[in-house]
């Protein structure tokens, strides 16, 4: 039932907002060098579904700005939520009071840590692309172990919601963090790390903005390495009918992705055009290698530009047919048919960010996580169920999923509020994607996350006793139910 509601997503366009940056004099004792509230006081999330008009929007440039904003909120009895840049489709940044947009906090520093070796400290608004370039150009060249797919995301947003990459052993990106600094409800900077307090660090690693404003994050990094990325296309039913296929692939790879374009075997001239037995899936895996890369950085940039143009055309084609859903099977089959087998060697960050981010293509995103059985039987079954459900809708003349369904396997985490926390719920949604539309999801999450929420709440109450950052109706509802149970 939950899956069928998830598959009812639609595409929504984003309207971009331009912010102004000035010095705002609040009173004779408090100067905030951040953003003047924009003229119409409007902010929209990535896919344009959420529109808010808070009392003020700030774009801080320094740590002192963050401290002053918190002090101002306390003086004026206001609450604070934060926003960065990425594919967040949930209401996590929604507030009626102060919205802090952190994208101007973008300084990066590489260090040789006595315990961790090479580390990189990035301010909250640093993009993954800027982080990658700093590490790539360092002597010696360095890299993070794994990152999310798109390089436009900002580090604080990635960590706060527990976003992940493709490499299985790396887990969520938060697990590469060795320390972070947060401006908490007192207006002071507090550092969180495993050495200082492990239980508090496990709360901070996926904090949903509830502990304060993230100022900086320090990640463990390693010498740059190469990955061979291989794509093959196989019959979906045949490959998924044997769960051992997934296990074998995972055990021989650093990471895997199984992608499915709905109706890719559609043939309008066939007596039974909607036949799932003709569909194929794309199997991608990454393997560490000493082989040289196949493309220069300049060639990659040219390739990404071509890819972006292709994504724009895909988006326009699919969007133009939302009012004519019967055309979706033919469109997706045509688009998928242009892909072929490939095997290419990239530097690690280029292999992970293999899809160029095109911000004008506002595809909607939903992501769920569940625990894999030792024999991988539930992994194959769940993916097969996605395909079956899509065709059940199609037979009723409904085509809710018109873009890629992607399946990955990543390591569990000790971060309390992560959707990959090491427990056994039936299903957990990714906080940064769409999930609030699922019926009864709040009561469900308060139930399955009850123990973690109770542990997290002890940390939250310590650093934000006045609930300055606890301004989110969905999270308030989930927490209150869990704490009352």
TrEMBL record:
GO terms for molecular function: FAD binding; oxidoreductase activity, acting on the CH-OH group of donors, oxygen as acceptor. Keywords: Oxidoreductase. The keyword Heme does not apply. InterPro entries: FAD-bd_PCMH, FAD-bd_PCMH-like_sf, FAD-bd_PCMH_sub1, FAD-bd_PCMH_sub2, FAD_lactone_oxidase-like, Oxid_FAD_bind_N, Oxy_OxRdtase_FAD_BS. Signal peptide: none annotated. The keyword Nucleotide-binding does not apply. Residues 50-224 form the FAD-binding PCMH-type domain. It comes from the Eukaryota. Belongs to the oxygen-dependent FAD-linked oxidoreductase family. This is 3781_t:CDS:1. The lineage of its organism: Eukaryota, Fungi, Fungi incertae sedis, Mucoromycota, Glomeromycotina.
